[in-house]
Amino acid sequence: MNVENTQVQMRKGILEFCILQIISRGEVYASDMLVELTSAKIMVVEGTLYPLLTRLRKAELLDYKWVESRSGPPRKYYTLTKKGHEFLEKLSETWKDLVASTNKITTNKKSKSKKAVK
After folding, report:
1. Which residues contact 16 (CB under 8 A, 6 or more apart)?
2. Model pTM greater than 0.85?
3. Does 72 reside within a domain?
4. Across the chain, which distance is largest between two alpha carbons, in Å?
5. What CATH number does residue 57 fall under?
6. Using 50, 70 and 90 to split pLDDT, how confident is the model at 14?
7. Is the pLDDT at 99 greater than 70, yes or no?
8. I want to staple 66 with a disulfide (CB 3.0 to 4.6 A). Which of 30, 37, 73, 74 is the partner?
9. Residue 30: CB partners within 8 Å, gap ≥ 6?
10. Distance in angstroms (rounded) separating the CA atoms of residues 38 and 78
11. CA 21: distance to chain centroid?
């Protein structure tokens, strides 16, 4: 088994949550999301981000608007919809539960389960 593959899958599993979290703070441009995700070591490339943003928009979790740029073409800025905020709130609750559960398991020094002896 390859540890790098497992690490990538773990990061992919929280990618949608992280993207929604970033957008929840206010209007954000896709390249700024890429910078933040990369700096947080949540590796993502444009080929992953843009289809995910499209899927989230089709699910009515986010919206976008075009903003004219002083240096180049217009930019698409994303924001969460009301439905997106509600969805993120539920994901945040799940995240807190997962962190607590994972911490409980990873900090347990001794297994409390005993094999049955027959």
Report:
1. 52, 56, 91
2. no
3. yes
4. 77
5. 1.10.10.10
6. very high
7. yes
8. 74
9. 46, 49, 50, 53, 76, 78
10. 18
11. 7
